[in-house]
Design brief:
Elements (H helix, E strand, L loop, with lengths): L4 E9 L2 E10 L6 E6 L10 H7 L4 E5 L18 H15 L3 E7 L1 H11 L5 E7 L7 H8 L11 H10 L9 H8 L3 E4 L2 E4 L6 H6 L2 H17 L4 E6 L7 H9 L5 E5 L11 H12 L2
Parallel strand pairs: 3-4, 3-5, 5-6, 6-9, 9-10
Antiparallel strand pairs: 1-2, 2-4, 7-8
Helix pairs in contact: 2-3, 3-8
Length: 288
């Protein structure tokens, strides 16, 4: 496997500046840019397989959202929220200077993409929302909250891979080799073993969300979704506990009237490593 290029961009926060890392595949001069943004506790290397499949047509850019992977951790954890993430992405897009911009976002990365696509004069021309929508099931949030931000230490890569698989079965079938490839970038060497490669404080704003605040956020997200004008593809794991069939059908019926593709044997969320998942996204993005 060829390795992606690692770059950084300086972004503004309440305390000063922080560096956001991004991984880049394909021709750095290609004006066709595909931005791929990962889920809540993940990082940009999740897209290695997908990016390699798309790098012939695009410059593929996979950021590590602040607090994850090779990006800086914030001094003030209250900055770990979608509006701040979107602001960082605006800075990244200014750096990329794309002629054509397409966006693929998994879970949190999809919500950031939804916010970006809803901005006035948004450069996002095609949007792929991977197993996420304006309405998120409380039971799914409770499941994620049961492990997010808990201190962990693993002695070996295999031990870490087993622990991460225990909370990631929704990602669908993966060979051991595929899962180890997805696990390695999630780990940071420490104390003769490994710890998670994200700031445990990303859990603080997540845990602080009240039911009332969640309802307000949901209404805002639906308003943004209804305002979208770009072609939109909605991916859903058929067993997803985060994106229900009812929410998916509402997204097909309103706003940009998303195309829906569902994948059997997968929950939250499809990892875009399986050939049928890659093919579905590729066909949508490259459609004339």
């Amino acid at each position: 496997m060829t390795e992606p290029r690692l770059n950084h961009v300086q972004c503004l926060d309440a305390q000063g500046l922080h560096r956001m890392a991004y991984w880049e595949w394909g021709d750095a001069a290609n004006p066709r840019v595909l931005v791929c943004v990962h889920g809540l506790s993940r990082q940009g290397r999740d897209f290695d397989t997908f990016a390699q499949a798309m790098q012939g047509e695009y410059r593929v850019v996979c950021p590590d959202v602040v607090g994850r992977g090779q990006s800086d951790y914030l001094a003030d954890p209250s900055g770990y929220q979608i509006p701040a993430y979107a602001a960082d992405m605006v800075t990244l897009l200014a750096r990329l200077n794309a002629g054509t911009l397409h966006w693929v976002g998994t879970s949190l990365g999809g919500l950031i993409g939804l916010v970006m696509a809803a901005l006035k004069n948004s450069p996002v021309q095609r949007l792929v929302l991977n197993d996420v929508g304006p309405t998120i099931e409380p039971s799914s949030l409770a499941r994620i909250g049961s492990y997010l931000g808990l201190p962990s230490h693993w002695k070996t890569l295999d031990e870490a891979a087993d622990a991460l698989w225990a909370i990631s079965k929704g990602f669908g079938p993966h060979t051991r080799e595929q899962w180890l490839a997805l696990t390695r970038p999630m780990l940071k060497p420490e104390g003769g073993g490994f710890v998670p490669h994200y700031d445990l404080q990303i859990a603080a704003p997540f845990r602080a969300i009240t039911p009332e605040a969640a309802k307000v956020g949901e209404a805002m997200m639906w308003a943004m979704y209804d305002s979208l004008r770009c072609p939109t593809l909605l991916l859903r794991g058929a067993d997803s506990d985060l994106l229900t069939p009812a929410t998916a059908q509402a997204m097909v019926a309103r706003g940009p009237k998303a195309e829906l593709r569902q994948f059997a044997g997968v929950g939250h969320a499809p990892m875009l490593t399986a050939p049928d998942q890659i093919a579905a996204v590729r066909e949508f993005l490259l459609r004339t």
